[in-house]
Amino acid sequence: xxxxxxxxxxxxxxxxxxxxxxxxxxxxxxxxxxxxxxxxxxxxxxxxxxxxxxxxxxxxxxxxxxxxxxxxxxxxxxxxxxxxxxxxxxxxxxxxxxxxxxxxxxxxxxxxxxxxxxxxxxxxxxxxxxxxxxxxxxxxxxxxxxxxxxxxxxxxxxxxxxxxxxxxxxxxxxxxxxxxxxxxxxxxxxxxxxxxxxxxxxxxxxxxxxxxxxxxxxxxxxxxxxxxxxxxxxxxxxxxxxxxxxxxxxxxxxxxxxxxxxxxxxxxxxxxxxxxxxxxxxxxxxxxxxxxxxxxxxxxxxxxxxxxxxxxxxxxxxxxxxxxxxxxxxxxxxxxxxxxxxxxxxxxxxxxxxxxxxxxxxxxxxxxxxxxxxxxxxxxxxxxxxxxxxxxxxxxxxxxxxxxxxxxxxxxxxxxxxxxxxxxxxxxxxxxxxxxxxxxxxxxxxxxxxxxxxxxxxxxxxxxxxxxxxxxxxxxxxxxxxxxxxxxxxxxxxxxxxxxxxxxxxxxxxxxxxxxxxxxxxxxxxxxxxxxxxxxxxxxxxxxxxxxxxxxxxxxxxxxxxxxxxxxxxxxxxxxxxxxxxxxxxxxxxxxxxxxxxxxxxxxxxxxxxxxx
Length: 613
Prior knowledge:
Helix content: under 10%
Number of helices: 5
Strand content: 35-45%
């Protein structure tokens, strides 16, 4: 039997067959020591088990918030993506000084967005994360992207937060480059983002792009564009918080963006100008999608999106939410926007369905611009289930909902004025609204006029199926000579409400088509009197005036002055005692219909004339 003549330190002796093996180094111990994990049945070598997940600390990352961990993290990313393994980032603050480059098959997973943090070091002046070849792909517009060998695909980021440290980067925390100073910038497809928090960026918080290669004919497999975004929270960005420019066929849910605008935005008296979209304001959440057949210098992406919940607030230099593009096909469940310079806009070209929009605190901090809470400009086919606006003092008289695009369908609009001024619904197009509820719009609007619940203008013919307007200065102003219709409902103004009592509730600046006006079917209670859209009744011609021409006044109790041609007068069936009768409608005003009536001298009974308006 062999003998050991000399050995220092600690050794492991293991028997294999008839032989003994002496191993003294730690790596050797691991290689020769398979273990069985608790609850399992199959022994594995430690080195094999450690290789299941790549840990950034195995590459030298410290996570103390001081040591520059950029090189260690990038080394872990490069290695793990090459073998398609997940990268574990334990709790800690990982300081970085240059962008962490996300490659295909990069799977970053922190402990949680509350405990795993990537923080940009002072004076680094860069993005925190960006995909491989981002600048090259973005500048070329992704030309031939379906065959592009460098396009990042199949990656995921989850369970960590990003601190862009904008107060100590760039000049005053504001980047001068549209694609620098951001939290996460992506040019790629087929990826997922889950439970990510981004804050304090001198540029854009989150920006995703894919501008070409979206046609079905170019897809090589069924996973071409399975992209998922879930639980993303962005705040304190100098430019846009969340920007989506592709890829198409995505699912986005639970995105919250807030406190968007340059560090001094709350004291500025003008909108900020976007670096990404020159001529546009700095908006909180932006969906911009374009036609892939666009012949412009940069091919544009086809836009489809399935969106769950979006919350955007405190956008000091622009809209909270903006949808833009030429062929956007959207399906959205719920958007809540508050505290923007205009809370939401759907621009020309967008088409799709939105279940619910709710807004409040429009025009926060900037009083020189009259942007409505909700502005719908698209004529490409937009359907909305419900719009809810809750006005506050910050609205400073602004309009709640303005629709300028055609072919817009809205099932329900609810505007709670809370006693503040501003117009409710402005219709400048052929739009269909199912039900409008509007209350307590009181005082001077942004134009210095009385607040109006509904304004119809631009010679259009919108339709509102039902209205319920309560205690507004003016209920409806019609300035259209076309065929608008308000089918049914109620308008009420109570003197104790504080609403201005000096103006009629229904004002016709222009006269619409009579055929349309005859379909206005709502009742009005104003100044203690009920008035109605139609009249059906009769006038009595007394017998003591027989043989002479009598002038009779018939109170019609309508909230509008009817056209004389609308008034139909019919004698009731006469018996022999009534004799002959002749009559004519001579005039009509806001209160009465005037008739001239003559009954025969031989009449022995009073005569009734049925009147229908």
